[in-house]
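Lab intake sheet, docking and co-folding queue.

SAMPLE TYPE: protein with bound small molecule
LIGAND NAME: flavin-adenine dinucleotide
LIGAND FORMAT: SMILES
REQUESTED OUTPUT: full 3D complex as structure tokens
PRIORITY: normal
SUBMITTED BY: R.K., bench team

The fields below were copied directly from the construct record.
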Amino acid sequence: VTDRAPAGGWRQAEVHAADHPDRHGVRLRLAVPDRVEHWSGQHYVIRLRAPDGYTAQRSYSIASAPAEDLLEFYVERLTDGEVSGYLASQVRPGDLLEVRGPIGGWFVWRGDSPAVGLAGGSGVVPFISMLRHAQRIGSADRLALAVSATGLDRLPYAEELQAAGALLALSREVPPNGRAPGRLRVEDVQGLQPAAAGIGFVCGSASFAETASQLLVAAGLSTDRIRVERFGPTG
Ligand SMILES: Cc1cc2nc3c(=O)[nH]c(=O)nc-3n(C[C@H](O)[C@H](O)[C@H](O)COP(=O)(O)OP(=O)(O)OC[C@H]3O[C@@H](n4cnc5c(N)ncnc54)[C@H](O)[C@@H]3O)c2cc1C
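RESULT FIELD (auto-filled):
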């Protein structure tokens, strides 16, 4: 997978839709003419430019499947977040954004082998791309997901994840599956059979990534079989 050609330069993306599936973030659908097709798990950099020339750029994982016409992103609005705040509250259909991508050759899944994914909060985004891709190519049974959040309203794509059979762990409420409130446990992860899958993907905050990686190891996966994407500050 590392032989993928570099992403190239900046392109203009036109905002096709900017909707708010919950009060914590925005789902952006962008039209990018002549874009390079991505692999599930990759991300783009979005750059904002002020009239005085000041720019700020941040990375955002791709939620759409490679075969979808529009690129989809979910951006969680962070308190005092420079870029996420603007994207979540100011962007409207028809706006133009500068984007560069797709980026990443390590945290990618092409759907041709079994995989286990663990996500925390907005860390679900790259797994939505993987899930949609798997469904399109008839490989949905190859991807086992467990996702964690404080509550359903802090879990982007909650309905899509539930419909796909992802294991939901909510720390502050009882999810529709009736699971007692709490974080992901080693038994949850063992149930996804990561050792048999042979590869585990982890995505979320730095602390989630640390804990989830330890769960995969405790469930029998060796560290060199774990691929991690941390949604830490990139500014
Ligand atoms: C490969 C990659 C993919 C990513 N994909 C997504 C995605 O799909 N959706 C998404 O919402 N975000 C994603 N992120 C995070 C994103 O790049 C930004 O870090 C985030 O949107 C905050 O940017 P900001 O300008 O709003 O905040 P800033 O103005 O940079 O920071 C505001 C405050 O929040 C803190 N902070 C910054 N980033 C984070 C963070 N991620 N978590 C917690 N605190 C933070 C800062 O330390 C600061 O205190 C991804 C990051 C990486 C590296």
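REVIEWER NOTE: The pocket of flavin-adenine dinucleotide is lined by residues 43, 58-61, 74-76, 78, 80-85, 122, 125, 205, 229, 231-235 (CB under 6 Å).
SIGN-OFF: pending second check by T.M.
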